[in-house]
Amino acid sequence: MGKGESSSKKVITKEEWEKKLSEVKIRKEDMNRLVMNFLVTEGYVEAAEKFQHESGTQPDIDLGTITDRMAVRKAVQCGQVEDAIEKVNDLNPEILDTNPQLFFHLQQQRLIELIRAGKVEEALEFAQEELAPRGEENHAFLEELERTVALLAFDDASTCPVKEVKELLDNAQRQKTASELNAAILTSQSHEKDPKLPSLLKMLIWAQNQLDEKASYPRINDLVNATLEEPVT
Description:
mainly alpha, coiled coil, CTLH domain-containing protein, LisH, CRA_dom, Ubq-SigPath_Reg
């Protein structure tokens, strides 16, 4: 950006900006609901119970169901996929009955866990009986199955040189499957699958990027502490 273009921007001082912010009225009840939404969606049941007691904010879901949902999520994160499937069916069997993609991904994760444990014959049998028929019906499923089975080409799957294949063994893959299942459970309970707070922070970043083109003002670069920076002039 040239010097002339920079100088044409409107400069808003920190004092002026803070005054404008103080004029924006946000109800405490709305802030409390935003916090409760985050705690419920992310599964912090103890924190949600404490926050309910301290603020009087009522969750829009039975907090008891959070414990069940977190048990399902933890089972996947620990590689106990069969246990997770049993738990989610106890909660609501329609979740998996009506979501073939989610069920395939859970079965895929079961296959990954068998490979991780070195149970090659069992993994091959499981892939042929449970996953191959689904792959024949869905090209995307078939590609994911082929990528997973490729791990069996190595005596030690962790030595696989192909990044997109080897990463299936990462904990991030378990987390991805757990998050997908968590979102499906939330949807079945008529609750948003994603917390509102991160979306608001993304909107803040977008709004600041748009405003950067027109003005120099106190930005919030530190989202954790919400610190206003001095405007660049």
